[in-house]
Amino acid sequence: MNFPVKITEESFAARAARVVAIAAKYADTVDFEGRFPQEAVDSMKAERLLSIQIPRNLGGESATTTEIAELCSMLGQACAASAMVFAMHHIKLSSLVEHGADSVWHADFMRRIAADQLLIGSATTEGGIGGNLRNSICAVHVEDGVCRLEKDATVISYGAHADAILITSRAHADAAPSDQVLTTFLKDQYTLERTHVWNTLGMRGTCSDGFLFKGEAPAQQILPKPFAEIAAQSMLASSHLLWSGVWYGIAIDAFSRAQAFVRAAARKSPGAPPPGALRLAEVSNLLQMVKSNVVAGLKAYEDAKANPDKLSSMGFAVAMNNVKIASSETILEIVNHTMLICGIMGYKNGTPFSLGRHLRDAHSAQLMISNDRILGNTSSMLLVHKQDTSLLG
User: Fold this and answer.
1) Which is nearest to 224 in space by CA: 338, 102, 354?
2) Are 52 and 103 in contact (CB under 8 A)?
3) Which residue, 323, 313, 272, is CA-closest to 293?
4) Domain definitions of the chain by residue range
5) Spatial CA neighbour of 164 closest among 192, 136, 132, 138
6) Is the pLDDT of residue 3 over 80?
């Protein structure tokens, strides 16, 4: 399906608002049925939001990570699954934008993403590595200009619905587990055999089933930079920041429902402080902490983008890890507080104050990537790195 090169001069937010309306309409159905949010994704494509990160000279709109994070937050207020699909797509796209522009094939591929609004999936997990995306068991085999890869991918983000997949592997059969590359495979270049069904507590609409992936493509589709550089210089930051944008959106909507509940109680008893009013103030404080955390992380990333050494530094990695840890832990505290404010009306499904979906979706935050794994990596770096304590950034 081809989309017009330029459909609107409207802001990203105005276009995203139309997607938000559609995502909100189907959010409960997507969650209940555990199905892909096709209506919201179709709307993202119609509004050309899947290519906004791509440079203008390749058909995109050169959107910044901050602008994309804001859209993740908007979508997160309506449907966390739709927001996470949008975030994951742009996380993978950041690898192409930051590390593939000098590759003729990948530059042309970005033009195609912009023209056709292709959805990019992610396959970085693998059976036997325990969720450590910086190690691979499988290896890509290159012969006569063709690369072949078979991977037991325990999770592929919306794998059955993606138009292409970016997948990690060892660089060759004799490579160390951490010597990895990232390869782009188009939908007609691979097969997927489902091995695990995505039947989860929350984020059900991301439909990230497990598959046995088998792909064959021209070797030029392997990104030229080692995955270690890609992960350190773009994927780490964009993952933690865009995910945090989604979680912040969940928290905003939970707060809005709690605020509406307290206001309704206040109208029933004029002159008396309504139950939950003080706790609502606590939630407001927590919400501002998450916002400040994410905004500071976005600024740090935008400031560091022009300096590959800074992007690869321990200090930067520690800072991005801390953004993710703080955001993912605080969102659960926020949703728990809003549940207490709304009481049984928040606990029940089908009310204007229902928070069950928010609570279940929020629980995914500490598991993507496991906070224990991130804290372990940070603790190792802090053995040799001095914590940055300056207020000047």
Assistant:
1) 102
2) no
3) 323
4) 12-118, 122-221, 227-382
5) 192
6) no
Fold of 122-221: Butyryl-CoA Dehydrogenase, subunit A; domain 2 (2.40.110)
Q: According to DSSP H, which parts of 159-272 are helical?
A: 227-230, 236-268
pTM: 0.95
pLDDT band at residue 51, thresholds of 50, 70 and 90? very high
Kindly state the average pLDDT of the residues 338-344.
97
Please, what's the largest Cα pairwise distance for the chain?
80
Structurally, at CATH architecture level, domain 227-382 sits in Up-down Bundle (1.20)
Pairing outcome for strands 190-196 and 210-218: antiparallel
CB contact at 8 A, 114 and 58? yes
Amino acid at 4: P
pLDDT band at 9 (very low <50, low <70, confident <90, very high): low
Q: Give the pLDDT of residue 393.
A: 67
Residue identified by tokens 């933690």 is: 240
The superfamily (CATH) of domain 12-118 is Acyl-CoA dehydrogenase/oxidase, N-terminal domain (1.10.540.10)
pLDDT beyond 60 at 5:
no
- DSSP string computed for 35-98: ---HHHHHHHHHTTGGGTTS-GGGTS----HHHHHHHHHHHHTT-HHHHHHHHHHHHHHHHHHH
User: What number of H helices and E strands is found in the chain?
Assistant: 13, 7
- Whole-angstrom distance, CA of residue 67 vs CA of residue 131: 29
Nearest to 75 by CA among 63, 65, 84, 67: 84
pLDDT tens across 180-189, in order?
999 999 999 9
Give the per-residue pLDDT at 4. Answer: 44
The CB density around residue 349, as the number of other CB atoms within 10 Å, is: 11
| Mean pLDDT over the full length of the chain | 95
pLDDT digits (tens, 9 = 90+) for 314-325: 999 999 999 999
